[in-house]
Queue: 3 jobs
Job 1
Amino acid sequence: MSSLSGCAPTLIARFLSTLLLVLVPLAHAGDEAIAGYSKEPLRAPLFDEAQIAAETMAINNWLNANIQKLTYDQMKGPREHLYDLIDSRVKQHYASEQRVLPKKHDLMLEILFSWAEPLGGFGGSQIFNSVKAGSSPTRTPGMKLPEGLSISLAKDLLTVQSSAGWSVSFPYYFMIWNVGDFTAKGGPRTQLVALSTGAAKDSSQAGKSQATLMFMFSPDEYRSFESYWRRQLGIGAEIKSNELGVKSLSSRHIVDAPTKLHKEFTSWSNPTGSFAVAYLGIEGTYEWNRPHFIDFLRVVAATKSESRPDNVFTGGR
């Protein structure tokens, strides 16, 4: 775990100065917006520009003072707040520019993504290198990935790819908080990618949250794989399946009444192995981000793994 306290004064000085200056163009700015993903959730940011500016300075200062004291479990709250701010900033850029990567260098995004990897966000260094000013030092990804798994960034899409023959791509501002390869106790060998979507208002006491996408793959037999992960999520086989409109996929959907947590689960197999995707969200966030769940399934079902984009970090055990 590394602290950024040494560069914080420089970042803050630049941050304050850019409030009065024209920002410089990014030579590598992406296309209009996230190829393959709906633009519908890219509205109604949780924070306005003034709030993001104030909160960016606040979280930067707080993390510089406290990052070394945080356990991994204690990073969850700051990490989610960080990505709430990132999500709002991205939505502001989309509203003004019709793109999720800004046309010009944005120091708020640079500061926020400077903390993504230190707080446990996979791919954070690749994104930081993409949005940083030319004068800022490039970072080498430091989070360990299981052998055979890699994370790459191409324009505004992150891709997690496996040597087992699958890959998943999604917007760069989604928060990847787990990438694993393990054999579950009493269950199948599983490669897993867990990430959070953009933020939205919900029915919880906090009033906002991010939805969760979980992608699972196994080379093992499909029926036992499907049954194991469906049961882990508390979704019974008696729950009726509904068509998703993505190839021949259907999903089972339940709602936990006390928490208003929606859980949706779909699975399939092909010659490569067995696949499953779970989508979870509190009422409000679940509906708001569901178009990106459908997009995620469509992209996963269509993606081939023969080629690997630039800017790849490959892990090892």
Job 2
Amino acid sequence: MRVEHLALDGAVIGIEAQADLSAGATATGWAIVPSLMRAHPFTICPAGHSQAFADHALSNFTAMNIVSTTDYSLKGGSLRVAEVEFPTATGGVRTLTIGAWEGRGGCLTTSLVGSAVDRLVEVFDTLRFRERARGLAIDSPITSRPRVPEVIKEVPGIGVLNIQPALPSVLERIPRTRGKATSHGELFRIRATSRALTYVSNSAVVNIDPFEETESPALMAAAQELRIEWTPARGMR
């Protein structure tokens, strides 16, 4: 089976595996926000995430206090901004403003510390992003610092794939010795005490965190046939 997902900047990540790849993927990274005049972290989730997040938060974080929730119509989609309070370990209260822009192709989320509803709306208003044929992506400049863009995908029978472009800063964490050759790349076991694997192709570096129920022979067999390519949309700053 083969699928394609978008990274934060619209780079296309092609995944081929002998597994069910129908589940969506999550893209993370940092983009330059005009209103903030600096890089800020964003996450793009599959469409419908804003409601799923709200349901999960209300049912699992009973100590969370939702101060306010406001919906806006923005850039052809719906922006939901919530101001929430969490208790801290020292007995105080931490305020966080969370925003989720929902469109047909995905859900773009981020947050700001403190009570900052108007400021967060301005973040979404000045950030350049749009829906594309394969999903949602950001057109504002994407940076590789403080964290390289990443696409995260769960694959049944294998585990969680954390996919990054094969940039020099990412490749420097790979052993200099040759890994185990596969059909489309190399495999490394970075830590002897872990079943986690690292797959390296010409354009991508993928950390494979196996599910507990995935047996080692099945994991290795699936990893041997894995093919993942990262096709850049444009250069990163």
Job 3
Amino acid sequence: MHRPRAPGGFTLLELLIVLVIGGVLGTVSLRSFSQVQGNLGARTAQSTFFTMHAQARAIAVEQGRDVLLVVDPTAGEVRIERESDNGVIRVRNLADDYDVTVTVSGGSLALCMTARGFADPRCGNVSDRREVTFTRGGRSRTVAILPLGQAMEDD
């Protein structure tokens, strides 16, 4: 006796189920990827800020003169400037480089590093604790700036 062959291929219902499952998995993985990107951008901007902070202190000590570490949230940048003539030594635009939004408690920040390696509130605007926050994609990282110029990660 000869059996009839089952038709090959998939039914429309099977294809629809596979497409729906694929769409759900794609949406979940895309959301996770954007969260990872946001966290990475904010963390990298924070790390760059710590590097600029250390450079400002080192330049002040090395040159024996006051150096400003300026955070401009409207431009999204961090600058190292000579205090006496406002000559810019280094600039990093964190908004462009890492697609982050930079905010500073109390507006802008000008931290004056002296030749002794600590901050002097007479030539900067940091007289109490300030916070610099880097935000991307709903993720943020914060740096606390203390009156003597210390920078530390703030949870």
